[in-house]
Design a protein that fits this description.
By secondary structure, the protein is α/β, with parallel strands linked by helices. Helices cover 26% and strands 21% of the residues.
Length: 294
Protein backbone atom coordinates (compact mmCIF):
# COMPACT_ATOMS: atom_id res chain seq x y z
CA UNK A 1 0.00 0.00 0.00
CA UNK A 2 2.78 2.43 0.83
CA UNK A 3 4.37 1.92 -2.59
CA UNK A 4 1.08 2.49 -4.39
CA UNK A 5 0.46 5.69 -2.48
CA UNK A 6 3.91 7.01 -3.36
CA UNK A 7 3.51 6.22 -7.05
CA UNK A 8 0.00 7.62 -7.23
CA UNK A 9 1.02 10.79 -5.43
CA UNK A 10 4.06 11.24 -7.68
CA UNK A 11 2.04 10.84 -10.84
CA UNK A 12 -0.58 13.34 -9.73
CA UNK A 13 2.16 15.78 -8.71
CA UNK A 14 3.98 15.28 -12.02
CA UNK A 15 0.82 16.14 -13.94
CA UNK A 16 0.31 19.27 -11.87
CA UNK A 17 3.89 20.41 -12.38
CA UNK A 18 4.15 19.60 -16.07
CA UNK A 19 0.89 20.51 -17.76
CA UNK A 20 -1.11 23.59 -16.88
CA UNK A 21 -4.03 22.84 -19.26
CA UNK A 22 -4.54 19.49 -17.54
CA UNK A 23 -4.48 21.21 -14.13
CA UNK A 24 -7.37 23.37 -15.27
CA UNK A 25 -9.26 20.24 -16.31
CA UNK A 26 -8.59 18.61 -12.94
CA UNK A 27 -9.81 21.69 -11.10
CA UNK A 28 -12.97 21.76 -13.20
CA UNK A 29 -13.77 18.05 -12.87
CA UNK A 30 -12.32 17.15 -9.48
CA UNK A 31 -9.89 14.35 -8.78
CA UNK A 32 -10.38 10.84 -7.43
CA UNK A 33 -14.15 10.67 -7.72
CA UNK A 34 -14.19 6.89 -8.03
CA UNK A 35 -15.78 4.66 -10.62
CA UNK A 36 -19.33 5.45 -11.59
CA UNK A 37 -22.12 3.90 -13.59
CA UNK A 38 -22.32 0.34 -14.78
CA UNK A 39 -24.35 -1.99 -16.93
CA UNK A 40 -27.82 -0.57 -17.27
CA UNK A 41 -27.10 2.50 -15.14
CA UNK A 42 -26.30 6.12 -15.91
CA UNK A 43 -22.56 6.74 -16.23
CA UNK A 44 -21.32 10.19 -15.18
CA UNK A 45 -18.03 9.80 -17.10
CA UNK A 46 -16.72 8.10 -20.20
CA UNK A 47 -15.32 4.58 -19.88
CA UNK A 48 -12.02 3.37 -21.32
CA UNK A 49 -11.06 -0.29 -21.65
CA UNK A 50 -7.28 -0.64 -21.21
CA UNK A 51 -6.63 -3.96 -22.95
CA UNK A 52 -3.26 -5.70 -23.09
CA UNK A 53 -3.38 -9.42 -23.76
CA UNK A 54 0.21 -10.70 -23.66
CA UNK A 55 -0.30 -14.41 -22.97
CA UNK A 56 1.36 -15.51 -26.24
CA UNK A 57 4.72 -15.15 -24.50
CA UNK A 58 6.58 -13.55 -27.43
CA UNK A 59 8.56 -10.38 -26.77
CA UNK A 60 6.62 -9.48 -23.65
CA UNK A 61 7.38 -5.99 -22.36
CA UNK A 62 7.95 -5.29 -18.68
CA UNK A 63 6.43 -1.85 -19.20
CA UNK A 64 2.89 -3.09 -19.89
CA UNK A 65 1.72 -3.18 -16.26
CA UNK A 66 3.02 0.29 -15.51
CA UNK A 67 1.58 1.70 -18.76
CA UNK A 68 -1.89 0.42 -17.92
CA UNK A 69 -1.59 1.83 -14.39
CA UNK A 70 -0.61 5.23 -15.79
CA UNK A 71 -3.61 5.28 -18.13
CA UNK A 72 -5.94 4.34 -15.27
CA UNK A 73 -4.42 7.02 -13.06
CA UNK A 74 -4.77 9.71 -15.71
CA UNK A 75 -8.48 9.04 -15.99
CA UNK A 76 -8.90 8.87 -12.23
CA UNK A 77 -6.88 11.99 -11.43
CA UNK A 78 -8.56 14.04 -14.14
CA UNK A 79 -12.06 12.80 -13.39
CA UNK A 80 -12.68 12.58 -17.14
CA UNK A 81 -12.99 8.83 -17.61
CA UNK A 82 -13.11 5.53 -15.76
CA UNK A 83 -10.64 2.85 -16.83
CA UNK A 84 -11.11 -0.90 -16.79
CA UNK A 85 -7.79 -2.76 -16.99
CA UNK A 86 -8.01 -6.18 -18.63
CA UNK A 87 -5.33 -8.57 -19.84
CA UNK A 88 -7.79 -11.16 -21.16
CA UNK A 89 -9.63 -10.85 -24.46
CA UNK A 90 -13.01 -12.44 -23.84
CA UNK A 91 -14.43 -8.98 -23.08
CA UNK A 92 -13.70 -7.86 -26.66
CA UNK A 93 -17.23 -8.77 -27.62
CA UNK A 94 -20.79 -7.51 -27.63
CA UNK A 95 -21.75 -10.73 -25.87
CA UNK A 96 -18.87 -11.72 -23.54
CA UNK A 97 -18.96 -15.04 -21.76
CA UNK A 98 -17.57 -16.48 -18.56
CA UNK A 99 -15.13 -19.40 -18.57
CA UNK A 100 -18.04 -21.83 -18.47
CA UNK A 101 -19.53 -20.33 -21.63
CA UNK A 102 -22.43 -18.61 -19.92
CA UNK A 103 -23.04 -14.88 -20.47
CA UNK A 104 -20.72 -12.68 -18.40
CA UNK A 105 -22.29 -10.92 -15.46
CA UNK A 106 -21.24 -7.28 -15.26
CA UNK A 107 -17.90 -5.81 -16.22
CA UNK A 108 -16.72 -4.05 -19.37
CA UNK A 109 -17.41 -5.14 -22.93
CA UNK A 110 -17.93 -3.49 -26.31
CA UNK A 111 -21.46 -2.40 -25.41
CA UNK A 112 -20.59 -0.26 -22.40
CA UNK A 113 -17.19 1.39 -23.00
CA UNK A 114 -16.41 4.45 -25.10
CA UNK A 115 -12.82 3.82 -26.15
CA UNK A 116 -10.10 1.17 -26.07
CA UNK A 117 -6.50 1.73 -25.08
CA UNK A 118 -4.63 -1.20 -26.66
CA UNK A 119 -1.18 -2.47 -25.70
CA UNK A 120 -1.48 -6.10 -26.70
CA UNK A 121 0.84 -7.68 -29.20
CA UNK A 122 1.47 -10.60 -31.52
CA UNK A 123 -1.18 -13.31 -31.84
CA UNK A 124 -3.95 -12.07 -29.56
CA UNK A 125 -6.71 -14.71 -29.38
CA UNK A 126 -9.97 -13.41 -30.85
CA UNK A 127 -12.52 -15.53 -32.68
CA UNK A 128 -14.24 -14.47 -35.91
CA UNK A 129 -17.25 -12.99 -34.11
CA UNK A 130 -15.06 -10.94 -31.79
CA UNK A 131 -13.11 -9.55 -34.72
CA UNK A 132 -16.33 -8.38 -36.35
CA UNK A 133 -17.44 -6.82 -33.07
CA UNK A 134 -14.14 -4.97 -32.57
CA UNK A 135 -14.13 -3.46 -36.05
CA UNK A 136 -17.79 -2.47 -35.71
CA UNK A 137 -17.12 -0.90 -32.29
CA UNK A 138 -14.92 1.68 -33.98
CA UNK A 139 -16.24 1.84 -37.53
CA UNK A 140 -19.99 1.74 -36.91
CA UNK A 141 -20.39 2.84 -33.29
CA UNK A 142 -17.91 5.71 -33.64
CA UNK A 143 -15.86 4.73 -30.59
CA UNK A 144 -12.21 5.53 -29.92
CA UNK A 145 -9.15 3.30 -30.37
CA UNK A 146 -5.82 4.46 -28.95
CA UNK A 147 -2.89 2.09 -29.34
CA UNK A 148 0.69 2.13 -28.10
CA UNK A 149 4.06 0.66 -29.04
CA UNK A 150 3.57 -3.11 -29.52
CA UNK A 151 0.08 -2.68 -31.00
CA UNK A 152 1.35 -2.72 -34.58
CA UNK A 153 2.80 -6.20 -33.95
CA UNK A 154 -0.66 -7.60 -33.17
CA UNK A 155 -2.93 -9.54 -35.52
CA UNK A 156 -0.42 -9.66 -38.37
CA UNK A 157 -2.57 -12.24 -40.17
CA UNK A 158 -5.72 -10.11 -39.91
CA UNK A 159 -5.71 -7.55 -42.78
CA UNK A 160 -8.68 -5.60 -41.45
CA UNK A 161 -6.86 -4.81 -38.22
CA UNK A 162 -4.05 -3.33 -40.28
CA UNK A 163 -6.61 -1.06 -41.94
CA UNK A 164 -7.96 -0.07 -38.52
CA UNK A 165 -4.64 0.80 -36.92
CA UNK A 166 -3.04 2.25 -40.06
CA UNK A 167 0.32 0.41 -40.33
CA UNK A 168 2.22 -2.77 -39.52
CA UNK A 169 5.36 -3.57 -37.54
CA UNK A 170 8.55 -4.14 -39.52
CA UNK A 171 11.17 -4.55 -36.82
CA UNK A 172 13.01 -2.09 -34.60
CA UNK A 173 16.35 -1.12 -36.18
CA UNK A 174 17.23 0.98 -33.15
CA UNK A 175 16.50 -0.82 -29.89
CA UNK A 176 16.63 1.51 -26.88
CA UNK A 177 18.36 4.36 -28.66
CA UNK A 178 18.52 8.13 -28.29
CA UNK A 179 16.74 9.74 -31.20
CA UNK A 180 15.51 13.05 -32.55
CA UNK A 181 11.77 13.31 -33.22
CA UNK A 182 10.12 15.78 -35.58
CA UNK A 183 6.70 17.11 -34.60
CA UNK A 184 4.84 17.29 -37.91
CA UNK A 185 1.58 18.51 -36.43
CA UNK A 186 1.92 20.83 -33.41
CA UNK A 187 -1.76 21.67 -33.73
CA UNK A 188 -3.03 18.19 -32.89
CA UNK A 189 -4.24 17.88 -29.26
CA UNK A 190 -1.82 15.06 -28.42
CA UNK A 191 1.26 16.74 -29.90
CA UNK A 192 0.71 20.46 -29.39
CA UNK A 193 2.59 20.41 -26.07
CA UNK A 194 5.68 18.94 -27.77
CA UNK A 195 8.53 20.98 -29.20
CA UNK A 196 8.98 21.18 -32.99
CA UNK A 197 11.96 18.86 -32.55
CA UNK A 198 12.69 16.92 -29.37
CA UNK A 199 14.86 14.03 -28.25
CA UNK A 200 13.79 10.84 -26.54
CA UNK A 201 15.23 7.43 -25.73
CA UNK A 202 13.03 4.57 -26.90
CA UNK A 203 12.81 1.46 -29.03
CA UNK A 204 12.08 2.91 -32.46
CA UNK A 205 9.75 0.84 -34.61
CA UNK A 206 9.89 0.67 -38.37
CA UNK A 207 6.47 0.76 -40.03
CA UNK A 208 5.27 -0.93 -43.18
CA UNK A 209 1.99 -1.38 -45.06
CA UNK A 210 0.96 2.21 -44.48
CA UNK A 211 0.26 5.17 -46.72
CA UNK A 212 0.28 8.85 -45.95
CA UNK A 213 -2.84 8.98 -48.09
CA UNK A 214 -4.68 7.22 -45.25
CA UNK A 215 -3.11 8.48 -42.01
CA UNK A 216 -2.21 11.87 -40.57
CA UNK A 217 1.39 11.52 -39.42
CA UNK A 218 2.01 13.52 -36.25
CA UNK A 219 5.54 12.52 -35.21
CA UNK A 220 8.39 10.95 -37.16
CA UNK A 221 11.91 9.87 -36.36
CA UNK A 222 14.67 11.96 -37.93
CA UNK A 223 16.56 9.06 -39.47
CA UNK A 224 19.33 11.39 -40.65
CA UNK A 225 20.41 11.71 -37.01
CA UNK A 226 20.47 7.94 -36.38
CA UNK A 227 23.52 5.67 -36.84
CA UNK A 228 23.51 3.38 -39.90
CA UNK A 229 21.70 0.09 -39.32
CA UNK A 230 21.47 -2.94 -41.58
CA UNK A 231 17.91 -3.66 -40.38
CA UNK A 232 16.53 -0.48 -41.97
CA UNK A 233 14.25 -1.54 -44.80
CA UNK A 234 12.79 1.77 -45.81
CA UNK A 235 14.56 3.78 -48.49
CA UNK A 236 12.45 6.94 -48.25
CA UNK A 237 13.56 7.90 -44.72
CA UNK A 238 9.94 8.03 -43.56
CA UNK A 239 9.68 6.61 -40.03
CA UNK A 240 6.35 7.72 -38.50
CA UNK A 241 6.17 7.37 -34.72
CA UNK A 242 2.64 8.67 -34.15
CA UNK A 243 -0.40 9.20 -36.33
CA UNK A 244 -4.15 9.74 -36.22
CA UNK A 245 -6.93 8.72 -38.56
CA UNK A 246 -10.60 8.03 -38.77
CA UNK A 247 -11.98 4.54 -39.27
CA UNK A 248 -15.56 4.82 -40.33
CA UNK A 249 -17.21 6.89 -37.61
CA UNK A 250 -14.44 6.22 -35.08
CA UNK A 251 -11.18 7.93 -34.16
CA UNK A 252 -7.86 6.08 -34.08
CA UNK A 253 -4.50 7.15 -32.65
CA UNK A 254 -1.24 5.22 -32.49
CA UNK A 255 2.22 6.00 -31.15
CA UNK A 256 5.29 3.76 -31.13
CA UNK A 257 6.62 5.48 -28.00
CA UNK A 258 6.47 3.52 -24.76
CA UNK A 259 8.95 0.63 -24.79
CA UNK A 260 10.35 1.03 -21.28
CA UNK A 261 8.45 1.55 -18.04
CA UNK A 262 10.40 4.77 -17.42
CA UNK A 263 9.04 6.20 -20.68
CA UNK A 264 5.55 6.19 -19.16
CA UNK A 265 6.85 8.46 -16.39
CA UNK A 266 7.85 11.06 -18.98
CA UNK A 267 5.23 13.86 -18.76
CA UNK A 268 5.48 14.52 -22.49
CA UNK A 269 4.66 10.90 -23.27
CA UNK A 270 1.81 10.27 -20.84
CA UNK A 271 0.27 13.62 -21.67
CA UNK A 272 0.37 12.64 -25.35
CA UNK A 273 -1.65 9.49 -24.62
CA UNK A 274 -3.99 11.36 -22.28
CA UNK A 275 -4.79 13.95 -24.94
CA UNK A 276 -5.11 11.20 -27.55
CA UNK A 277 -7.70 9.44 -25.41
CA UNK A 278 -9.61 12.68 -24.92
CA UNK A 279 -9.60 13.23 -28.69
CA UNK A 280 -10.76 9.66 -29.35
CA UNK A 281 -13.59 10.20 -26.86
CA UNK A 282 -14.73 13.34 -28.67
CA UNK A 283 -13.55 15.72 -25.93
CA UNK A 284 -11.41 17.68 -28.39
CA UNK A 285 -11.34 18.22 -32.13
CA UNK A 286 -8.60 18.09 -34.76
CA UNK A 287 -8.01 17.96 -38.48
CA UNK A 288 -6.76 14.47 -39.36
CA UNK A 289 -6.80 14.91 -43.12
CA UNK A 290 -3.89 12.81 -44.47
CA UNK A 291 -0.84 14.80 -45.65
CA UNK A 292 2.28 13.94 -47.60
CA UNK A 293 5.74 13.96 -46.05
CA UNK A 294 6.86 17.49 -45.25
Amino acid sequence: MKRLLIIGGWLGLAIVLSSAPIVQTFEAQGRGQGRGGGRGGARPRKAVLAWADTRNGIAQHDSVSHALAVIERLGYESGLFDTYIRTDSNIISRHPTMTDGKPASGGPDLTNVDAIFFLGHRDVPLDARQKVDLLSFVKDDGKGFVAAHTATTAFLDWPEFGELIGARYDGHPWNTAYGSVINEDPGFPATKHLAPVFSVTDEFYQAQQYSRDKIRVLLRLDVSKMPPNSEVHRTDGDFPLAWAKTYGKGRVFYSALGHAAATWDNPDVYRMYFEALKWSLGMSEADVTPRLLK
